[in-house]
Amino acid sequence: MPATMLDGRALAQELRQEAEAAIVELTAKLTRAPSLVVVQVGDDPASTRYVRTIGRLCKNVGVTFQLELLPNDAPQADLIGTLTHLNQQPDVDGILIQMPLPGHLDATSAILALDHRKDVDGVHPINAGLLAQGQPAIVPNTPAGGMELLRRNGITLRGKRAAVVGRSAIVGRPMAQLLVQADATVTICHSRTNDLGSVLRECEIVCVAAGRPGLITAAMIKPGATVVDFGTNVCDDGSLVGDVDFASVAEIAAAITPVPGGTGPVTNMMLLKNLVTAASARLKA
Ligand code: NDP
Fold first, then answer.
1. Sign of CA pseudo-dihedral 99, 103, 109, 115
2. Are the C-beta atoms of residues 114 and 89 closer than 8 Å to each other?
3. Where in the numbering of this chain does the Tetrahydrofolate dehydrogenase/cyclohydrolase catalytic domain appear (predicted)?
């Protein structure tokens, strides 16, 4: 029987309405709109498109948005100086460093320069460490969105065997930590995993963030499993596909996220949620 679709577009609408309500409440408490600053270095077209989308979203939901655009050849000191300045501004609630940075810049030290309380992307090692310890943390948007898709579709995680394919700091690792927090038993797979299929076939939950179109086939999936595909791969014809061979896996899984329309639309809504969390926490501090 074909799988149930885990519909990211519908969930994104729901999350957006919740964020809007939270932003109205927060605006009253702060006596100003919550604010997000994106720091972008250079004019990479994909980054510019993404930042524009974020800016539009913020405007539409009542968040003050500011872009700090640094030239492509900006030295590391200028980037750090900008972040340090933003950290100190009381009316800046969230800061996002647009990645990737140009090759001459060191992303690790830029992230370390962020005030972790304003790190709405959840990339600062303090947030990653808190998450790893099972403590409240600002969690990267993409895996946080994956968890919302699972939870709000009533997928049971407690006691289930789960696998995450991918171990990046922004998707795979935090997703694994979140699944552990939800009482799943989790295996992290990566490019050196031997016989990926034999690991995945043991699992009722499979989350994939590898950036390899068609990596996951029906033969690797346990019948009745839930499959979350974070993969975002642009084909030669411009179409978007995930890491999962959707047509065949949808025949065997119980539930699956489509690409597009699955994890992608939820991600930006989680950014708003993180901004609300960050601003609320600073209000209480
Ligand atoms: P990275 O390239 O940082 O990480 C990819 C991970 O996949 C690595 O851990 C790598 O292993 C693993 N991997 C690669 N090939 C294989 C393989 N053949 N078998 C098993 N594991 C493999 O990517 P990201 O985590 O940043 O992104 C992953 C995907 O998610 C991309 O398609 C990206 O576009 C997408 N993405 C989607 C978002 C969304 O909102 N839906 C947001 C962010 C990313 P190793 O560590 O050994 O190299």
1. negative
2. no
3. 6-121
The model's pTM: 0.97
The predicted-structure confidence for 145-189, as pLDDT tens digits, reads as follows: 999 999 999 999 999 999 999 999 999 999 999 999 999 999 999
From ligand 1's centre to the CA of 212, what distance in Å? Answer: 7
Percentage above 70 pLDDT, the chain: 100
Q: Is 166 annotated as a binding residue?
A: yes
Q: State the closest ligand 1 atom to the C-alpha of 171, by its place in the atom list counted from 1.
A: 25
pLDDT at 1: 60
Domain 141-264 has CATH 3.90.1300.10: no
CATH topology agreement for domains 31-118 and 141-264? yes
Q: Where are the domains of the chain?
A: 31-118, 141-264
- The domain covering 31-118 belongs, at the CATH homologous superfamily level, to Leucine Dehydrogenase, chain A, domain 1 (3.40.50.10860)
- Is residue 210 in contact with ligand 1, taking CB distance under 6 Å? yes
Residue 284: predicted pLDDT: 84
Residue owning the nearest CA to atom 4 of ligand 1: 168
Compute the C-alpha angle 160/170/276, nearest 5°: 90
For the chain, state the CA radius of gyration: 19
